[in-house]
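Appendix B. One record, verbatim.
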Amino acid sequence: LLVKCTTRAGSFDRAVAKMVQALSDFRIRGVKTNLPFLERVMQHPEFRAGEIDTTFIEKETDTLLAPYNDNSEILKTLKYLSEVMVNGTDIPGLKGKPGAM
């Protein structure tokens, strides 16, 4: 458990809106999280209408657990840096792994 997030508001709709905003504001890198799953739950029409039961996740597994691609600039940079640290680079004048020069 990295963090616990709760919201409170005068209505269910407002509390859900606040949670959606809170989830989208999280920036956690380097570990996998369930943020995409939670965002999908909060934005699902049945959840927002309050029409779910204990079988909701089971029935909506394909929708809620669909692959998530985070193509943010910071993630692209982290992927590039890890690639260079592990495999080195082909950039002229910078061949090899860091520290090998």
